[in-house]
Amino acid sequence: MKRSVLVAAGLLPAILLALSLTLPVAGLASTRTGEATETPDSLPNFPGRDETFGYCIGCHSFQVVGRQGMSRERWDETLSWMTTRHSMPAPNAAMRKVLLDYLTVAYPEQRGSARGWVNPFAPK
């Protein structure tokens, strides 16, 4: 019994290491051949692009952000929600303005179109 526990405990680090080498980590550029990497240069070029990219990419792909298309008020509510619900570091007032200015211009409100997560398997 003890030996099987020791073997299992010894395999766990090896399994975790193998998974970490094969699974992409959110926010990190992929090094696999043929996969696109996200960089600030791939986003609309408006003031605050680099700061916004750096703030958002730490938790999720920027493709998630680009599909939202919200009003400034909704972007502001979303920043508050991510801070409260997902422990995102709260931006100070100056950074919050930079983020909201960029998001409002680069990804303005889109009425009547699909927003948010899109199921890749949904019928088209």
How would you describe the overall organization of this protein?
The protein starts with a helix and ends in an 18-residue tail after the last helix. It is built from five helices and no strands. The chain is mostly helical and about 120 residues long. The chain has a domain at about 35-105: Cytochrome Bc1 Complex, Chain D, domain 2, CATH 1.10.760.10. The longest helix has 21 residues, at about 1-20.
Unreliable parts: 19-34
Relative helix content: 40-55%
Distance between the termini: 54 Å
Task: Give the class from helix and strand content and strand pairing.
Answer: mainly alpha
Number of strands: 0
What's the order of the H and E elements? HHHHH
Describe the largest sheet.
none
Gist?
The protein is mostly helical and 124 residues long. 50% of the residues lie in helices and 0% in strands. The chain contains 5 helices and no strands.
